What does this fold into?
Amino acid sequence: MFGLMQQEELLISGLIDFAEKNHGETEIISRRVEGDVHRSNWAQVAKRSRQIANALHAMDLEVGARIATIAWNGYRHLELYFGVSGTARVLHTINPRLHPDQLAWIVNHAEDQVLCFDLSFLPLVKAIHTHTPTVKHWIALCDEDQLPKDTGIEGLQCYESWIGQHTDHYEWPMFDENTASSLCYTSGTTGHPKGVLYSHRSTLLHAFGSALPDVMNMSARDSVLPVVPMFHVNAWGLPYSAAMVGAKLVFPGPALDGKSVYELIEQEKVTFAAGVPTVWQMLLSHMLPLKAQFSSLKRTVIGGSACPPAMIEAFKSEYNVEVLHAWGMTELSPLGTLCSLKNKHNLLSPEEQMKIRLKQGRSFFGVLLKILDDQGQPQRHDGKSYGDLYAKGSWVIKKYFKEKDSALIDGWFPTGDVATIDEDGYMQVVDRTKDVIKSGGEWISSIDIENIAVSHPHVAMAACIGIPDPKWDERPIVVVVKKPNTALSKEELLAFYEGKTAKWQIPDDVIFVDAIPIGATGKILKTKLREELIQPQH
Ligand code: ADP
It folds into this structure.
């Protein structure tokens, strides 16, 4: 017997309709490529996304056509999020930090037909436009008077004129909620990138889940700063969850340096921010010497790579900002776990609470996790036994775009992470499977070694990699960037490890460098470090 309730398809157009009707005046603020701060609101975003829908219709693009963006976080990008997906076409967000060859490969693989880009990416677009035959329309996200002449890009149009020719009268179509809505390629540290094709249903369920109080705790009282880019995993779904709850959005554009981010937080009274650890490192480095404080920021979600304990501690003790450690990946839309405490933890001392906060957190309703050993045997949830982490759920990938085979093993997605899960369901990433250091049959977590290094007052950034060793197979070394104007020797840092980890886990060597290579999604590029530092074995 079926229930007798209505079935509304879960569509992205429903989000923007809702935001317009219920939170129309709530602001959408963007620092633009031009440098100024632009003010819009949900009503404006809704109106202009309907103009996009009409503009796409006039281009005669079929349902399911891919419309690509190479753009920073800003209001025009947000309008495309709703305008493209709302018409049952697919928004393909591209990471501009990729190599142009890889970028062209992705455009060709996705068979993008329209490519919208911020003017700061004009050189990139010039480099690829003759290698991407499927793209029929090039659109610069700017005003007509900013459109550069003689770019050599045939038919280049400006966004404002493109949508300006069309009315905002448009009825969003109704269709199956399993229809594809957006496409994002994983950075592909090995081999070609792979496309993750989200659906309207997966996107809305992820937005419901991620807005929950124990997850991102999003509400209409929030002013949200997504530092995490809209060109990678839909800015952790924040554009959708913000529309769902009617939150104010504050977009940083290309200015991600500590000073710009700090000023924006203060000017727009940001209450909640989200980003990868490297961005927060820049922010804290800017604030520390100025003894600056936050007047509105209450909490920040940090994820994408392990958040060093020293950073959680600094946010809490120096700035009274709660850090919510989160774990996820492109294939999970991206949120898998977030670390918020339970009722029984209220009585714990701050030190005991901190031990929990360092973990990547609990899964929330909608995501299932399990850990298996090499033989595929389930591991105990005791916080110590570790194994390969698998995920399952309504916003977890089933198959990569255009791949024949399923991405799953027995119905579960292998994440490529090694993790523990404790009795209360808190998951802790031990390491990326490919980054874990295998020394004498035992495993050393590169994350643990890095965390100890960055807790040293003179260390700004650290990366631990394994180097081949004839006796032990692999041994850890740590690559370190010192804080400016500080002195630190190899011996001092190695002595700092004494008593903080088992003797055999202490790195064999310390290499001081001026900078550590950062990849397209703001994470330390260990593959590059290995290439640079490890001599080929003969
Ligand atoms: P890509 O696959 O393109 O590198 P993702 O952003 O999808 O990019 O990266 C997912 C991976 O990032 C996870 O599998 C995990 O290894 C790592 N990761 C994400 N969040 C955390 C975290 N809080 N702590 C440790 N590692 C993390």
User: Anything to note?
Assistant: The radius of gyration is 23 Å. The chain has a mean pLDDT of 94. Residues 42-58 form the longest helix (17 residues). Residues 186-187, 303-307, 325-330, 334, 360, 415-417, 429, 432, 521 surround adenosine-5'-diphosphate (CB under 6 Å).
